[in-house]
Amino acid sequence: MNKLTITLAFLVVLLFALPASAQPELGIIGGVNFSTVSLDPEQNIDINTGTGFSAGGMFVYNFNERFSLQVEPTYMRRNVDFTATDVGESPFTNVTLEATQKATYIDVPVLMRVSFGEADVKPYLLAGPDIGFLSSSKQKFNKVIADGEDITNMFTSSELEEDVKDETRSIDLCMNFGGGVSVPVGNNHLFLEAQYSLGLINIDDTQPEPGQEDATIKSRGIQIKGGITFPIGIRH
User: Fold this and answer.
1) What number of H helices and E strands is found in the chain?
2) Element housing 160 (H / E)
3) Are 109 and 142 in contact (CB under 8 A)?
């Protein structure tokens, strides 16, 4: 059974476990993801924010008008741009690599939502854990500069991209914080929200070279999401 099937099964079980008085909602969600990582030690690597995307579903269980549980299983692309300098590669003295780490995850944020105000348009705050299941991880070298000369065209496209899934931990655990606004449209709700994702564990799964420190890499990200939810069941 794959990870997506497990997630869907969890949501189905949760749905049938709800009391009859609940007003749950299902929806679709999508957006843009700005990803980076923290690296310790830095190792002559300059890390920049990369842009990816997310798309998936949403389940909302409204305890009452103010408090809700929000689950957002999504397919998440996390791109991180970086430049590694002073890399010695024979027969060159200095090599600079400009590259992009492209990873995809099935993310499952489980968030508590607190809504404010008495009007139909409601702002809200979000917080909760987010577990990510790694689907793929590749490293693409966009530019290779050796002793000041661009030698990227000396390599084939297959040589400039490598699979690094085995070097990345299969699970990432984060804490998400954010907020948004929900707007009623008939019985449905349109929403727009932003979340900050703070990685809690080391996602590097490589062994250091002799004499080198073990690297600690933790994910960071800002996600802008939007979508629509639809009520299911009957409000009592």
Assistant:
1) 1, 11
2) none
3) no
Using left for φ > 0, alpha for ψ between -120 and 50, and beta otherwise, residue 165 falls in: alpha
| Sign of the alpha-carbon dihedral angle for 35, 222, 29, 127 | positive
Vertex 101 angle, CA 142 and 216, to 5°: 130
* Distance, CA of 77 to chain centre: 7
Total number of residues shown for the chain: 236
Half-sphere exposure in the Cβ direction for 155 (13 Å, CA):
17
Are the beta carbons of 54 and 222 closer than 8 angstroms?
A: no
With CA atoms as reference, report the closest residue to 126 among 150, 146, 110, 143.
Answer: 110
pTM for this predicted structure: 0.82
Mean pLDDT by 10 residues, the chain (236 residues): 52 50 84 94 85 95 91 95 74 82 96 91 96 95 88 88 93 96 93 96 84 83 96 66
The residues near 133 (Cβ < 8 Å, ≥ 6 apart) are 3, 105, 106, 107, 108, 170, 171
Q: Cβ neighbours of residue 90 under 8 Å, at least 6 residues apart?
A: none
Return the ∠ at Cα 70 (arms to 67 and 74), rounded to 5°: 165
Joined together, the tokens standing for residue 201 give: 């564990």
Confidence at residue 77, expressed as pLDDT on a 0 to 100 scale: 96
Q: What is the DSSP string of 185-202?
A: ETTEEEEEEEEEEEE-S-
